[in-house]
UniProtKB/TrEMBL annotation:
Residues 30-53 are annotated as: Disordered. Residues 30-49 have a biased composition (Basic and acidic residues). This is Peptide chain release factor 1. Pfam families: baeRF_family2. InterPro entries: Bact_RF_family2. It comes from the Bacteria.
Length: 399
């Protein structure tokens, strides 16, 4: 999971914390929903104030939790993060948070549960293609909305003529057909270049090509190698008006294929990461490509060496106390070490929240290791529930 949607929690130096983190269920269909919601919001504020939260932040959380009408939209819950009297991030949840997830007032936003509740949710570019161009939209489930569909992020208007071949066989007709095919190839190259640019800007995980069969194959052939491997084709939908209008059967079929492609991508990426972790945790020629355990991960995070952070939600090391400063790379096992790194007033924090902040700012990703993964690869992977694939190997052995 890419953590771009969490960047507002870490990119503002004027909001150093502490932070209120509240996971709130919103799916109450009965008539008493509003009253129950207001009661739960009051209880969340009371608990935060009991932990030392300021009244302005408690009031901001209360107002946000009670402002949205019950049952609005597809979200079953919300994750709200606030500080200094301001709600900074309000994320919809596809599943209700567990009852035992109490409101938290802490040095860092408590985002660990958010990763498990939202799950792996690859972002996806959907390109609606015909022989004259394409429209490109981004689908990202971290902004749940009523129904499917995404945000338009690009479009291509290529050559408009000639785009249709004729049935003739004389020299002039063959010449015209060659010009038509050249138009198709030219437009396919433009579309492929637009998709490359959109992917670089959005960092989408995969691409779905919908529309004209010949043109989408031509587009795929002209994509850069890495993007081509992340592209899938579908016969559903298209660029013509009415071919996949919202709410139609065709649109629902396309939505299902996009969702299936994203689910397959998430599963394959998780399996590949676990295989790499298993191989990388053992020294090869004296070099280690994976790390596990809080001490090794803290060192790797300070040096921005973490490429993928692996978290097993039931691991005991998630709760281990570390010390953090105001900067993402100011984290250590001991308070005095953070002071040495430049922060005179470090604070205690959970290991998972400190490591997530570090990798989010460094542009890395987080992968949640499920119980099934633990059964498949062994309950000790990763040790204590925290591990990482490194951006470059280091000399040494496994801890």
């Amino acid at each position: 999971m890419r953590l771009g949607h969490l960047q507002p929690l870490y990119e503002r130096p004027d909001l150093p914390g502490p932070w209120a983190s509240v996971y709130f269920a919103t799916s109450h269909p009965d008539e008493s929903a509003a009253q129950e919601r207001e009661r739960a919001a009051r209880e969340a504020g009371r608990r935060l104030e009991g932990q030392g939260a300021d009244r302005a932040t408690c009031r901001a959380v209360y107002e946000r939790l009670t402002s949205a009408p019950p049952g609005a939209g597809p979200a079953a819950g919300r994750a709200v993060f606030a500080t200094a009297g301001e709600v900074v991030v309000d994320t919809p949840l596809p599943t209700p948070p567990p009852m035992g997830e109490a409101p938290c007032w802490s040095a860092l936003p408590h985002v660990g549960p958010l990763l498990e509740l939202t799950g792996e949710d690859p972002s996806c570019l959907v390109a609606y293609i015909d022989r004259t161009g394409a429209d490109v939209e981004l689908r990202n489930g971290h902004g749940l909305r009523d129904g499917h569909g995404g945000d338009r992020v690009g479009s291509v208007h290529g050559r408009q003529w000639p785009v249709h071949r004729t049935a003739g066989a004389d020299w002039s007709e063959r010449h015209f057909q060659l010009k038509t095919e050249n138009t198709w190839e030219h437009n396919a190259a433009l579309i492929a270049d637009e998709l490359r640019a959109c992917q670089e800007e959005t960092r989408a995980d995969l691409v779905v090509l919908a529309g004209d069969p010949r043109e989408r194959r031509a587009v795929r052939d002209q994509l850069p190698k890495e993007l081509r491997s992340a592209a899938v084709e579908t016969a559903r939908g298209g660029r013509a008006p009415g071919s996949a209008s919202p709410g139609t059967h065709a649109a629902r079929l396309l939505d299902q294929e996009v969702d299936d492609a994203r689910a397959r991508h998430a599963q394959e990426r998780g399996e590949a990461a676990m295989e790499r972790f298993r191989a990388g945790r053992m020294p090869s020629d004296g070099r280690v490509e994976a790390a596990e355990g809080v001490p090794a991960l803290v060192d790797a995070a300070r040096e921005h060496r973490i490429g993928s952070l692996l978290i097993r939600p039931d691991g005991p090391d998630l709760y281990r106390e570390v010390w953090v400063g105001t900067e993402p790379d100011q984290l250590a096992l001991r308070r005095t070490d953070v002071q040495y790194l430049g922060d005179a007033r470090p604070s205690p924090a959970r290991a998972d929240d400190a490591l997530i902040r570090s990798v989010a700012v460094a542009g890395a990703e987080v992968l949640t290791v499920s119980s099934a993964d633990g059964e498949r690869y062994g309950a000790d992977i990763p040790v204590g529930g925290l591990g990482a694939l490194l951006r470059w190997p280091y000399e040494g052995g496994a801890d």
